[in-house]
Specification:
Length: 105
């Protein structure tokens, strides 16, 4: 299993200490290329993406998220703005359970 982190260089250094492959300051194209490679080779992977890399997604990201049981993608907040983080699943939760369900969080 591959352990991968893509995002800010400061976060990348911490993930490298944990044994992750790191791609500091990764671009959206790099995310797509790596995910496409993982899909093609059917590689098991745990992928941490800084949340700015999940705002505009391409076909490999969508395929990995929706069709691949081998790839787990987790987004994490930026180190310099953790309070601005809004997980992408939050909108789905609001639509399904109502906007007030997240008021206490």
């Amino acid at each position: 299993m591959r352990l991968i982190f893509m995002g800010d260089i400061a976060l990348a250094e911490g993930f490298a200490l944990l044994g992750f492959e790191t791609f500091p300051n990764a671009s959206l194209d790099m995310v797509e290329n790596i995910l496409a490679e993982l899909l093609k080779k059917k590689t098991k992977a745990l992928v941490f993406l800084e949340d700015n890399l999940t705002k505009q997604v391409g076909p490999a990201f969508l395929q990995a998220r929706s069709e691949s049981a081998e790839i787990i993608i987790t987004e994490i907040p930026a180190l310099n703005a953790p309070n601005n983080y809004q997980p992408s699943v939050e909108e789905l939760v609001k639509r399904v359970l109502g906007p007030s369900v997240l008021d206490d969080f």
